[in-house]
Structure formats: structure tokens, C-alpha cells
Amino acid sequence: MDEHMLLNFAVGVGEIMLSNGAETQRVEDTVERILSVQEGRMPETFVTPTGFFASIQGTLTGTITKFRRISKRSINLEKVTLANSLSRNFVEGKITLEEGFEELSFIENIKPFPSPLVILCHGIVCFSFSLLFTGTIYDALTAFVLGVLLGIISHIMELKKVSPFLISLLGGASITVFTLTFYLLGFGTNYNTVITASIMPLVPGVALTNSIRDIMNGDFISGAARLVEALITAVAIAAGVGVVLSIFNMLGGI
């Protein structure tokens, strides 16, 4: 088994997992398990949310190291699951290295969910949270419409390569503007409930959860980085909502 191919395969699996929402401890464990298939390689990994190193001891060339920069991250747990299963099958000897590269290419080329479905799910999430927050059915229906609008706005900004933090800021502001407009037109009974439910798709739940898991596993650098990311996103959402509400109250409120 070629050691360079093995290292490239392990790094490819780790890149897919890290760029699609896996926590750093899982990525480190997966990469090291793949590299440990060959005895005596002494694999080492160092993973952060924005990139990672992986190295093995070569037969003739000494230490071989690969670095992979993660410039674009998203949440796609389907890819994480498939990459995890791929690594497990390879380590257990169920597939060869060549077959592993073929499956790796397949996972990389999986298309994301259709945009209309993602936008619809935004609405369903907002509808459900509105009822969870003791809103009326009218609040829930209003939140559904606002969730769809948020999904459309977020999709457009993602196509324009807008910063995720700016998406959170503008998303929170636009949701508040739409909510107050709908409320003045007679839609919904509690605009606070509708706003809270409608911004839920923007809340960085996965980043916050992964930061806590990383910190509990002793990965303090990665955990702190993810925690800062989650906090900045939350501040951006709050700023977007708060500025619009402040302007609205300055103009006389309801």
C-alpha cells in the first residue's frame, strides 16, 4: 500500500468531515485510525476548525506531512456520516484503498439538498418553534411565511458569497422588519414570539454544541474557536433584531 496514497486518502476523509460540521476530536480519531492500518507509521494529527495537519513515518523518506486548509464550512451531516462509514469500512478491510478513493470522490460530489426544499424547511422550523413558544396558530402561520422569506434571503446572500456573520446580521434585521410590518397589517398576535421563532434557523446550535464537545475532550483551541464563532453569530443576530426594534420604538412603536 503506497504511503502517500494512504495519507492523501486519510486527509481527504478528514477534510470532508471537518468542512461539513464534524467536531475536531472525531476528525482526529478518524484520520489516525485510517493511518494506523499500516503498522509502524506512528500517525500524528493536529486539527483546528480551519485546517489540520496529518503525518506518518515513511519507509524511506522519513516523516511525511500533509496540511489541508478548510476555507469553506457548512453543515451537512449526511456527508459526515458517509465519510465516517467509509473510514470504518476501510479500517476493517472491507474495501481497498482504490475503492476508498472512488467512494471518497462520490461523497465529495454529492449535491446539496434542493434550494426549494431548504427554504420550505426554514418555514417549517419557524412554524414549529412558534407553537413551542406558546404562540397562536396565527403566530405560527406568520412565522412560517417569515421563515420562507428568511430562507430565500439567506440563499441569495450565500450565492453572493456574503459573510456568514453578515447573513446573520441582515437576516435578524430583515426578519424583524417583516414581522413588525405583518403585525401592523394584522397578521399575528404577539410579534415577540414571531421574531423569536423566525430567527431560530440562524441560531448557531451545531457550532455551540461542537465547541462544548471539543472543550470537554480537551481540544481547547478548537473549542474556543468554535465558541467565539457561535458567540459572534449570536451577537450579529441580536444586533440585527435590536437595531430594528430600537428604531421602531423611536418612531413611536405600536
Which overall shape is indicated by the principal axes computed on the Cα atoms? elongated
Proportion of residues in helical segments: 55-70%
Q: How many domain regions?
A: 2
* Model regions low in confidence, pLDDT < 50 over at least 5 residues: none
Q: How is the largest sheet built, in terms of strand order? A: 1-2-3
Q: How many whole angstroms does the radius of gyration measure? A: 22 Å
Class based on secondary structure composition and strand pairing: mainly alpha
Helix and strand string, N-terminal first? Answer: HHEEEHHHHHHHH
Sheet bearing the most strands, described?
3 strands, antiparallel
Q: Number of helix segments?
A: 10
What do the pLDDT scores average to?
Answer: 90
Structure in words:
The protein is mainly alpha-helical. The protein folds into 2 domains: 3-108, no CATH class; 115-250, no CATH class. The chain is 67% helix and 7% strand. The protein has 10 helices and 3 strands; from the N terminus they run ααβββαααααααα. The protein has helices at 3-19, 24-35, 77-91, 97-108, 115-132, 137-159, 164-184, 191-198, 205-216, 220-250; strands at 44-48, 51-57, 63-69. The chain has a 3-stranded antiparallel β-sheet. Helix 2 packs parallel to helix 3, helix 3 (77-91) runs antiparallel to helix 4 (97-108) and helix 9 (205-216) packs antiparallel against helix 10 (220-250). The longest helix has 31 residues, at 220-250. It is elongated.
Furnish the topology, listing elements before pairings.
Elements: H1 3-19, H2 24-35, E1 44-48, E2 51-57, E3 63-69, H3 77-91, H4 97-108, H5 115-132, H6 137-159, H7 164-184, H8 191-198, H9 205-216, H10 220-250
